Amino acid sequence: MAVQKRVRNGKTRWVARYRDPAGKEHSKTFDLHREAKAWLNDRERELRAGDWINPTDGQIPLTEYWKTYKTTAQSPGTREVRKTIHANLGDMADMPIDSIRPAHVRTWLGHLTNGRPWLENKALSQNTVSSWAAQLSGCFTMAVEDGLIRNNPVSKVKKPPRKVVVTVADLPTLDDVRAAIKLADKTGRETLATMMILALGTGMRAGEVGGLTRANIDMGNKLLHVVQQTRPRSGGVMAPHFAPLKTESSRRTIPFSATVARRMAAHLLGSVAKIR
């Protein structure tokens, strides 16, 4: 490691050089000797501490690194979200990841909230913006872990809070739910009524109710085995599509009441009658 003087066309410059752990030489030229020395001291300190980062590694554009991040998604739903964000990175898409600063992130969040210039100025809901900010932060955290950058620029930006969509006052009363079930039955939507009774009696989510099959219903012991769910297909198209549960802890066995049992038995008998 050294600082060398270089004179060319009567002008003096100072070249600082050092070698990385792999033996490759890196250099940078300065107008002043003290600037070159300070820069070299910083690199030496990083090498000693083991937190030196190759300056060329962080030159990968965000859009390219996002492809890697997208493949780490643990569920189809998360992969779809990351795929959508990939097409909405805005001005940051082609920027090297080590050049993205908190100011760029704030601008991006502003575009998501107030209107995206790349998509007819369409804005997103507060909850979606909050979710996308978390995904972007996850991408930069992975880049830090991979040794491509030193800091996550999203961590220094105030994230938009998630909006509480449903309050206690918004929840339907038991009479409201009973009326909805009765209406579904009266208008020929018996399957919908059965699904509402299942959700009410077991606490299952809508996707989990849709993912229930006969094989996972133990009528004798009055137990439901939650092992899968339904999800929209790519593009948001709703169709019969079973998918894994979001997390392993979502896999569970739920007891159900005699009321739910009677309704399911009637529903199953009705389904058999229709097939016949």
Automatic annotation (TrEMBL):
GO MF annotations, alphabetized: DNA binding
Native organism: Corynebacterium amycolatum
Signal peptide start and end residues: none
Entries under Pfam families matching the protein: Integrase_N_phage, Phage_int_SAM_5, Phage_integrase
Record carries keyword Zinc-finger: no
Family from the record: Belongs to the 'phage' integrase family.
Alphabetic keyword roster: DNA recombination, DNA-binding
GO biological process: DNA integration; DNA recombination
UniProt domain Tyr recombinase: residue ranges: 167-276
UniProt protein name: Phage integrase SAM-like domain-containing protein
The keyword DNA-binding is assigned to this record: yes
